[in-house]
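# nightly structure sweep
# worker-07 picked up a monomer target from the shared queue
# config: single-sequence mode, recycle default, output format = structure tokens
# input follows
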Amino acid sequence: MRFTVQLPTQQVEPPGEFCTAAAIAGMARAAEAAGFDACFVTDHPIPGDRWLAAGGHHALDPFVALSCAAAATQRIRLQTHVLVAAYRNPFLLAKSLASLDVASGGRSIAGLAAGYLEPEFAALGARFERRNELADEAIAVLKQVFRGESVALRGIDFAAQGNTALPRPLQRPHPPIWCGGNSRRAIRRAVELADGWLPFPVQRGLARRLGTAPLASEDDLARALDYAREHAARTGRSAPLDVVFTPFGMDMQTAAAGAMPESGALLETIARLSALGVTWIAASLPCESRAEFEARAAHFGERVIAQVSQRA
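# output follows
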């Protein structure tokens, strides 16, 4: 089992607490020292006001934030969780991901999704109704561009008639690509096109607002994983699929409320998730200051990561 932690750069006010280069560097170093295998940030370029008023959040540009983390660390991996591929031209996305991978010494992880906030798509001039096609297309384009060879491709909104993007990522054939979302379409995307799947806890009352399928219990997760295995068998996939899951009670919304499971109960939960097929645990740590984040990261490392390592 491996562990990834959210850097709370979505807490943009006051900016000096979480969003400066020094703040990000300090939190990333604390996560690395605690034993986390990766750190992640979220993605919202221009969210709608109604969504923000209902509990949504802002975010730093993910590549800026992760570059700050990269410069301050040596080992920890740098993950987008999740970056909305359908918002972006896939060639610009490829350039950003390759640049982060090279600058970090080959430590990037591309967590991608189709997105669900229609007002944000509208503000960015992106096609909400074709978001799933655009996400699938982006992954295919990334894999071709990352070869470092001339590309001749015609897509939904682009035409490359002989273009090349360098540098290539250091990771070969490309950085890990993980696909987010709970829907069956998202699961199929992960199985068919990606290296990992990023489901997340969603209570039934929130699923419609978040534009995905509910995932409200470990039984729900088990059924979704069964579907992923069945689809892998149907499509002939033999490569392992990383499964990155946030235990119930450790998601961003719960962390914002200041709650966190007791370590003993969390260890039992992690053991059950491992038995289901989860390979990474994602965590958001409740904190109101950078110092509190660093203290909670150290506590998590001692009480959870170290204990899981000893049991392995």
